[in-house]
Amino acid sequence: MKMAIVVGGLMALLVAAAPAHADPEVGTALVEFGAGGLRVGGVVMVKGAIGGATLDRSQDLIWFTQKKTLFVLDLRAATPRPVAIAKNMPTGAFSVSGFSGATYGADQAGVYPRLEVDKLAIDTATGPVVGHFPTIDARARKAARAIKVVGASWLKAQRARPRRETDLYWQTTRSDYYQRSEAPSGDEPCTSGELDCGATASFGLQDAIKLVVATSTCDKVGCQARCLLRLGDQRWAVPTTTAAWQTTVPSEAGPCFGFALGPHNRYVVGDARCTVAVAGVTCETDLGWTAAAWIDLPVGYARPQNEIDQVYGPLTDIDRASPRLGLPAFSEDGAKVVLPGVRQDPGQGAATTFVITDRGSVDDAWLQTLGHDADAAMNGEFTTEAWLRQRTFRPMPSWTFGTPAPRTVITDWGTFTLALTASAVTVTLTSAGTELGKQSWAIRAGTKLHRVAIAPGDPAFVYVQLDVPNGKEFDTQWVVMPLAAPVEP
Question: Which pairing describes strands 111-116 and 94-97: parallel, antiparallel, or unpaired?
């Protein structure tokens, strides 16, 4: 078993409240908004009517409008509270771009405001209806010029905010997802709309299911498109209506945009909460609440590097194109670890190194260096591979950082707290409110915190990779601390 997952303020709220309508899936929560406020997993986080909301899942940020103000809610915070970012916001679509990216309501918009979070400025973006209504577009540009950024200090503090990779859920939110194909029937009024009748979009749940444009029209108010679900080539369903698949095209259709796809063939759109299956579509309505997206929990969870690289072992070879791939690694017998590194040789440049040592140690290590020419590198690779094959090695769970390193890293092994000064680095690992390890190491000025890794076992160890200045370049240094609890791989 791994260590218990550390839960932050949001997860604690979800567990404590757990209303009957909360999302039942372990590890997911539904983000919704409406007249009653903004809620996550059924827990109201912000009270009062919300104009629109959108989620940046990689940053765990919810951007929303309320009373002509653009707010952001940081779900990684111990106590998430809305922060005012821009005032004089018009109603309707908006987007943010930069270290955080998210869009609300642009699917059938013309001109709408866009917050450039890195530049601390407001400009405009355009949706598929731009140009259809010049007067409305001109008003939107004028309204965007009146918006005032008031949250510059918060935005500046987030510029080094680490992203996390997540591929859980996909949303149909853009008209360019739709590709032209055969129309579902021959009499739909599709000649004047923004989308072609019969255009299809992958529904994301199963390859056999598509969203198909059934009607598409434009008038003085705007453009509207309506869609059907198609299973295979000849079976149809309305995406928001409970019914079996039909062999004839239904006379009514549903929305084309705003779908948030979740686990187990579930999806939400507007106030409909639906499941698609072989038998048909089943939907319930949650009146007053519009779905924005699913978010995976715990928020801020960082995937280990080997999962990102899709390397799981056993490791027997050195990747010629990427020699550090799959490293650091631990042996299943609990005896050894392999630590990758870089060493700067005067006049020759950088060489890849492999430190092979006892688990829990960085001393008395055998060091293999890949040389600077092809022959020497090949020799080093062959020697290391022969050593690797003496045991069964698998990648350690490890997390690699940019510059500057984040202050906290949430993992399903625990939460790392990282502190770096000019003279010392301190790493703390906690889980379920218990401190499992904390240690400080003296460092040379200019040292960077590159990576943390866990060597499973009893006892378990945390390895910390530092980049130590060597002239204008950096050498690798590893340090290690024991943990107070065992960790199983």
Answer: parallel
